[in-house]
Amino acid sequence: APGPAAKGKPRLLLMGQRRSGKSSISSVVFNKMPPNETLFLESTARVQKEAMRSFMDFQVWDFPGQLDFFDPNFDQDAVFGEIGALIWVIDAQDEYLDAINRLNMTILNIQPAYSNINIEVFIHKVDGLSEDYKLDIQRDIMQRIQDELSDHGFENAPINFHLTSIYNHSIFEAFSKVIQKLIPHLPTLEALLNDLCRSCRFEKAYLFDIVSKIYVATDSSPVDMPSYEICSDYIDVIVDVSEIFGWAPRPEDYVKALEGPPWNKKLEDQTGCGAAESCIVLTDQKRPIMLREVNTYLVLVAIMKEGSYEKMPLVTMNVETVVKGLLEVLEITKQRNGVEDGR
Ligand code: GDP
């Protein structure tokens, strides 16, 4: 029977050979570990998924030794039954033929029963490699996988490839792409963010997973790395501040005293909403950046245009409406996933 963990949360499984970089990836992405410190990681370190307050549900599996498809006791369903994406990490700085063979074997074994699982290959540790060499390796790996699969009758198997490193934002970019494919109502979320950018004249808006700083959705204007980095850095600032001053949940009487009548009325009169306090504006040189908590996992971050301060009441009101819309969409997602889980 499916466990309760997956309800409403996209579940990812990270696999690959020992020392390929799995623990490093999960520590950097989910525990804010500085990349240099991964040098001293125990290879066996595991992500504590229970403790993870992320929009995603995340598991890490090591090779070799854990998966034996020929062992009759191997419970495939327990491993693959609920996952949305299988992320396979290949160390690009090492000999990778064995990794590819194992990946091929895994795909061939799970494809018939779990054809809905997205296979995402992270060609990892590409930081030390030249542009040309990176592309050569990617071409070689893609070729070897597609050849093997088509030999077994799988033409054009849906496998995606990403060049990643924990020393830059490529690992976060790759996760964003992986996670976006698992969100059922992504176009609706994107449309809401587009509306928001138009009505508030924002340059860019992201819906971020707070813990990992992976963006779950963004408006349709192109993602540029500097703006993405600014937004994700600001989440760090807010998380640090909120670790000091506390995030949710606050005691009910405290909230009432601070935000109940008559204060809420006053706030509503001024801004059209009662949650102005969780909308924070910071400045990057001249452009204000707006953060608004959406739910326990997600935060809306937008880069505003210069001199948008005078429009703040209108901006706050629009943000409020969009946050409500986002929550509705996410609620539908949750219900839908719940139903599917129950089948
Ligand atoms: P695991 O056994 O798959 O969990 O691998 P680890 O996370 O323990 O990583 C093995 C080694 O690879 C560590 O020394 C990491 O510092 C290193 N590593 C991980 N990711 C990267 C990367 O993106 N670039 C480089 N150059 N080294 C990395």
Automatic annotation (TrEMBL):
Superkingdom: Eukaryota
Entry GO terms, CC: endomembrane system; fungal-type vacuole membrane; Gtr1-Gtr2 GTPase complex; nucleus
GO molecular function: GTP binding; GTPase activity
Reaction(s) this enzyme catalyzes, per UniProt: GTP + H2O = GDP + phosphate + H(+)
InterPro entries tied to this protein: Gtr1_RagA (IPR006762), P-loop_NTPase (IPR027417), RagC/D (IPR039400)
The entry's keywords: GTP-binding, Hydrolase, Membrane, Nucleotide-binding
GO biological process: cellular response to starvation; negative regulation of autophagy; positive regulation of TORC1 signaling
Main localization (coarse): membrane
Compartment list: Endomembrane system
Pfam families noted in UniProt: Gtr1_RagA
Function of the molecule: GTPase involved in activation of the TORC1 signaling pathway, which promotes growth and represses autophagy in nutrient-rich conditions.
Assembly notes: Component of the GSE complex.
Family: Belongs to the GTR/RAG GTP-binding protein family.
Protein's name according to its UniProt entry: GTP-binding protein
